[in-house]
Amino acid sequence: MNIRSLTRGDGVVIGAAVLLFIASFLDFFSFKCEAASSGLPYSGRCNVDNPNGWESVLFPVLPSIFLAGVLAAALIVTARFLPADRKVLGMGLDQWGTAFAVFAAWSSLWALGGGGDLNSPGVGLILGLIANLVMAAAALFTPRLPALKAPLLGAPTPQVASPYGTGAHPGYGYPGPGGTGAAPSPYGGQPYGAPQQADQTGPQAAAQPAGGTPGAPAAGDPAPAPAPAPAQAAGAPDFAPFWFAVPVARPLFPEDGGQAPIAELAPGTWYLAVDQRGQALVAQTQDGRRGVLQDTSGIQRG
């Protein structure tokens, strides 16, 4: 579970759910003093006890307004930590959460007209209505507004300016300390890409002319022909692999064009882009799987 997968809209939904839960314990209706002469159970006293959303006399206020709203927030937030293809009865969890949020806001609106002339809306009903309306709006407009779609905590920032500098980088595949960029050889010896040192104790040392420079031609020998320069990769692709991080959780699709995600890239982790296909990137996950990242907007290059 990566909290960086949450968006600003999810933060609004969580805040509205907390406000809704608090409102359920406040007075849902405020009875008027006329109830003292109306023959109600509160007859004979003016200061009656105002019920909150948890009292059975107001059923079904609790499940249709308060619990429905809290359940909506739980479904929307949970959907951020699950694969995009996870569905229940053909709908994603965030879609179910949006439906419950709209239902709770609709029920809150109808509750304003309940209770007759003997009571007025209490602070619990008013706060519950505000919380449900805010939650429904955030659930509906988060996928459509960039301001709500942005990450709640922002993309991670590397500890150093250069992706190959020193320092601890917990992300997968990010170059480790040392600053040379040379990977250690699994068979011992010098790292791959490091300059090779001449072995002064082997047979090659005996073949070197005394007092001369190793590899220099002896006097009278014809000068060796210069080694041919490596052929320029004129036909090689212009793409060069690089490290990147995504701002929000994004699915990784198969390279064969399938539409079922094989993995999900999470913010706060560095991934290696190994190829490019138009605007999409071919990325490699922690376990070695490769797939196509179709949405490359806002990625952070290492």
What structural class is derived from the secondary structure elements?
alpha+beta
Q: Please state the average pLDDT score.
A: 74
State the strand order across the main sheet.
10-9-8-5-11
Estimate what percentage of residues fall within beta strands: 5-15%
State the order of secondary-structure elements, H for helix, E for strand.
HEHEEHEHHHEEEEEEE
Poorly predicted runs of 5 or more residues? 39-45, 158-216, 228-236
- Major β-sheet, in short? 5 strands, antiparallel
By DSSP (H or I, 4+ residues per run), the number of helices equals 6
Integer-rounded radius of gyration: 33 Å
Quaternary state of the chains: single chain
Number of strands: 11
Summary tags:
302 residues, two-stranded antiparallel sheet, 27% helix, single chain, 11 strands, alpha+beta
Question: Could you characterize what this model shows?
Answer:
- The chain is an alpha+beta fold and 302 residues long.
- The chain has six helices and eleven strands.
- The chain has a five-stranded antiparallel beta sheet with strand order 10-9-8-5-11, with no helix packed on it. A two-stranded antiparallel sheet has the order 1-4.
- A hairpin with a 2-residue loop joins strand 8 (271-277) and strand 9 (280-284).
- Helix 1 runs antiparallel to helix 4 (123-141) and helix 2 (61-79) runs antiparallel to helix 3.
Topology:
Elements (H helix, E strand, L loop, with lengths): L7 H16 L5 E3 L29 H19 L7 E2 L2 E2 H19 L7 E3 L1 H19 L4 H4 L53 H5 L34 E4 L4 E3 L10 E3 L5 E7 L2 E5 L5 E4 L6 E2 L1
Antiparallel strand pairs: 1-4, 2-3, 5-8, 5-11, 6-7, 8-9, 9-10
